[in-house]
Amino acid sequence: MRRRWTDGRIVGLTSLGQRCKDEFNAPYWHYHRADLHRMLLDACADPAGPGPVVVVHTSSKVVEMDRTDPVRPVAITEDGRRHGADVIIGADGVRSRVRDLMGAPDTLLFSGEMAYRALIPGDLIAADPATRWLVDRYQSTIWYGPDRHLVHYMIRGGDYLNVVACVPCTDAVRENWTLPATAQDLVEAFPGWDDRVPAMLSKAKEDVLAFALYYRRRDPVWLDGRVALLGDACHAMLPYQAQGASQAMEDAAVLAEELGAVTASGIEGALRRYVDRRAKHAGMVQDASLANKTFYHLADGPEQRARDEKLTNFDGESDVSYDWLWSGTPLNDPDLGAFSYQFAR
Fold this sequence. Notes:
InterPro entries: FAD-bd (IPR002938), FAD-dep_Monooxygenase_BioMet (IPR050493), FAD/NAD-bd_sf (IPR036188)
Number of strands: 14
CATH class of the largest domain: Alpha Beta
Number of helices: 13
Shape: globular
Keywords: FAD, Flavoprotein, Monooxygenase, Oxidoreductase
Distance between the termini: 29 Å
Domain FAD-binding: 78-287
CATH superfamily of the largest domain: FAD/NAD(P)-binding domain
Strand content: 15-25%
Strand order of the largest sheet: 2-1-8-9-10-7-12-11
Cofactor: FAD
Protein name: FAD-binding domain-containing protein
CATH architecture of the largest domain: 3-Layer(bba) Sandwich
Order of helices and strands: EEHHEEEEHEHHEEEHEHHEEEHHHHH
Structural class: alpha+beta
Largest sheet: 8 strands, mixed
CATH topology of the largest domain: FAD/NAD(P)-binding domain
Number of domains: 2
């Protein structure tokens, strides 16, 4: 659902739940990021699962790499431990140390904006008649306004309302990357907006954070020998397409498929194919996310009215359509029966 900032008028609406299963053979989920992390970690550490159990080391910041032996790179952590492997994958985020150690070009850019993020207790939302509508029917909603926008949706079956509010960045947040904030900061960031907005945002508790929004310039340099990058380390994007984590998981699926098809002697070719299959696609999503920064934040006027008119027939909102974004799979050998079969678990 897309709403106007001044009065909450709906300017775009599309169905997601059953439609996504029917048309794209997959569900549309809203989830807590920590729940996703836990699911992935449990799968990696499950002794009854396929393949060897993954050993996870925490508090193990990589500070150096030793590539004296080109077919056996070594990651060195700050406590001096050495972790040799056939391959090193830098999936270490927007400020990737592995990327720096590879000598990859610095493609990081500042957007000029920041995002407030908050989890508002669902019971507070449900108890107030002014916000009860948010739990009567679960919907993913974006409010468009001049120079800023607001996203919210329920997670964990209504336990929380997840809020992401993108606004011009302050000097303090840009300098520190992340700072704590308050519910009052959230409310004051949306002056003059529909009354439902402050009614909702004022219920945020002490876990509000402000994040400076950086992204990477599109660049297909993800690979050097047996060291490769994945996710934000190679294609960090603005959150205006809700695709950062999704694109990282697509990277991981393709990388696993390519590495799983070769022995040690074929690793370099597998990594090259991984980049060839993913760099263009992820780059297009990067560009579309950046373009949405302008599209979402148009000032009231002719361009805004033309945008809203297009959204009345809603099948996407950016330089890439939902049909393109959600159709198909990055895999050569996908499990196409997973969500169309009635007994799928």
